[in-house]
Write a structure and sequence with these properties.
2 helices, about 130 residues, mainly beta, single chain, globular
């Protein structure tokens, strides 16, 4: 079964601008940070997870789908692609994983390429009691 993909656009904290990048059919629900949220799991399995990798050096035209494909076969819970206050991509994103082990395994992709740019990965995860 294919995963559903939902995209929401947000704005930077404490800013009043409501820039919405993308097509006119983008959702109008705004969050309180500058990011695009791309969920690759069904809504029942989306929970707060602290198992994520910060990505730096992404091509500015990289999409959430490009990031999902980058980590295959490891499944992501969600991807946050960051946008600056001017509405342009920053070249950074956070990739969230279901478990710490998945995040550690995904670190094997450090300095691999998306399009023509190598991407640096920074682990922001620690093993929970349940995983130890």
């Amino acid at each position: 079964r294919k995963s559903e993909i939902q995209i929401q656009y947000g704005r930077r904290r404490n800013e009043t601008s409501s820039f919405t990048p993308g097509a006119e059919d983008t959702p109008r629900t705004m969050k309180s940070e500058t990011s695009v949220f791309l969920w690759t799991a069904n809504s029942s399995s989306i929970s707060t997870t602290h198992n994520f990798i910060h990505m730096r050096g992404l091509p500015y035209d990289a999409t959430g789908e490009d990031i999902v494909k980058f980590f295959v076969p490891i499944r992501l819970v969600k991807v946050l692609v960051e946008y600056g206050p001017d509405g342009r991509p920053t070249g950074e994103a956070d990739a969230y994983f279901r478990t710490h082990q998945d995040a550690v395994l995904a670190m094997s992709k450090d300095r691999e390429y998306i399009m023509k740019r190598y991407v640096e990965l920074f682990l922001n995860s620690s093993a929970s009691r349940e995983e130890q």
